[in-house]
Amino acid sequence: MKKMVINTLACIALLAMSFFLASASDPSPLQDFCVAVNDTKTTVFVNGKVCKDPKVATANDFFFSGLRVPGNTSNKLGSMVTPANVAQIPGLNTLGISLARVDYAPYGLNPPHTHPRATEILTVLEGTLYVGFVTSNPDNRLISKVLYKGDVFVFPEGLIHFQLNVGKTKAVAIAALSSQNPGVITIANAVFGSKPAISADVLTKAFQVDKKVVDYLQSQF
Ligand SMILES: *[C@@H]1O[C@H](CO)[C@@H](O)[C@H](O)[C@H]1NC(C)=O
Ligand SMILES: *[C@@H]1O[C@H](CO)[C@@H](O)[C@H](O)[C@H]1NC(C)=O
After folding, report:
1. For binding Mn(2+), which residues are annotated in this chain's numbering (predicted)?
2. Which end of the chain has less Cβ packing within 10 Å, N or C?
3. What is the spatial distance between Cα 176 and Cα 100, in angstroms, rounded to a whole number?
4. What is the pLDDT of residues 66-75, one digit of tens each?
């Protein structure tokens, strides 16, 4: 009897562990594909999106022409990211991969950000980019490089990274990401532009600056 209880507990622990592992990244597909549909009526949560009947899937479920168009870089940062993930290509559902096109004006910046669910591999199509990422605590080591047309660089999952166009001409890059839904946290926006705002007591201490500086930074978002 005691042995059975222990076995049962071990089974539960194993199941719990495999569930945890399975939900830590995009799941392996259990069928050829699972074209996403919006099903507002369902009350079931799935790790991904609900699938369309495969019989009615079409080529357009796997297609996106949005990366033909350069992003509009007329903004404060001088950059624009055009995503091509499961939100744009429903056929990517459950497949664990996506792309983004990044356009940079001369000296444009894709500011420090992280993808909570994906490693990124970036290819420069045009221009010259200074890129880098920072390792986790306690080292916080900056690993950076200048990339030229055709060069490739990797930003490991979850780490803060950036790209700056250091050339006098526009730049273009294609980022491939190891998730259908990589997510983005832009550091400055999340910390100084959250809604509602993080208390100044938190930010003055965290950044070791006056409240005036925090107010100024918050007013930028
Ligand atoms: C789901 O709904 C949103 C909002 O209505 C829409 O933008 C998106 O294209 C829809 N996605 C699919 C796969 O139908
Ligand atoms: C680009 O964005 C700017 C600022 O929002 C806007 O004024 C301009 O019309 C846009 N250009 C194009 C080609 O959409």
Report:
1. 113, 115, 120, 161
2. N
3. 7
4. 999 999 999 9
